[in-house]
Amino acid sequence: MTMPRTPVRNSARDRLCERVVVSLRVDRVSRSRTMNSIEPPCTSKLRSSRLGRRLARGLAFGLLALVAPCLAGEPRSFYGTWVPPASLQPFWSPISDSWWQKGATPKLTRRCRDFAEHHNPREVIPEMIADLRAHPSEVRWFVYLHIMQSWPKARVLAVLRPFLRSSDEEIKHLAHEFYADIE
Q1: How many whole angstroms separate alpha carbon 39 and alpha carbon 20?
Q2: Which whole-number Å values give the CA distances from 10 to 7, 17, 43, 45, in the listed order?
Q3: Residue 71 — left, alpha, or beta (φ > 0 → left; ψ -120 to 50 → alpha)?
Q4: Which of 20-24, 59-63, 142-146 has the highest mean pLDDT?
Q5: Are the C-beta atoms of residues 156 and 148 closer than 8 Å to each other?
Q6: I need a surface site. Which of 25, 27, 61, 121 has the fewest CB within 10 A?
Q7: Coil, strand, or helix at residue 104?
């Protein structure tokens, strides 16, 4: 029994199907293969190129997964080198010296507003005060003030009140300055 000849088509898929049909004809004549083991001639090349691409993609993602945490923990250079607290990492990660030119830039002000919208002052303000106590910086003090001014005034003052009664003079001084500027 002979199979009808398939019309010639232009697409790669059609050419591949035509090769499969031709190989089926040869197999039926020779009866050397079963239907389950029939593969188009170019399948092994396709499989190896896919495997190579998958391997390369996997290695790239693996390398990225190993390098990304190192870059995220890298000390920020913002008027000196210091490591921001973990809760403030999302805020400081894109910021550099260029964001601060004799005062706040619109870009920095937007960043402060966006950060304030997505974070709770009860969680972040203690981290800000601890950061300034450990690494005093006038520039970061102004940046933190911009963030605090983006939150509702009453909420910020309520969070700062316990720090005003602190036994640590540095913390008390920082809280008093923030409180006076926000009030």
Answers
A1: 7
A2: 10, 11, 19, 21
A3: alpha
A4: 142-146
A5: yes
A6: 61
A7: strand
> Counting runs of H as helices and runs of E as strands, what totals does the chain give?
8, 2
Other Cβ atoms less than 10 A from the Cβ of 85: the count is 16
C-alpha 135, offset from chain centre = 27
3-state secondary structure of 116: helix
What is the pLDDT confidence band of residue 66, given thresholds at 50, 70 and 90?
A: very low
Query: Does 56 have pLDDT greater than 80?
Result: no
Residue 110, H or E segment:
helix 106-118
Q: Please report the pLDDT score of residue 70 as a whole number.
A: 45
Average pLDDT, the chain: 74
124-128's contacts with Cβ under 8 Å and 24+ in sequence apart are 124/87, 124/88, 125/156, 125/159, 125/160, 126/159, 126/163, 127/85, 127/87, 127/88, 128/88
Please give the DSSP secondary-structure letter assigned to residue 32: -
Q: Residue 81: beta bridge partners?
A: 77
C-alpha dihedral sign at 79, 124, 106, 179: negative
Q: What DSSP element (H or E) covers 66?
A: helix 43-72
Q: What is the mean pLDDT of residues 33-40?
A: 51
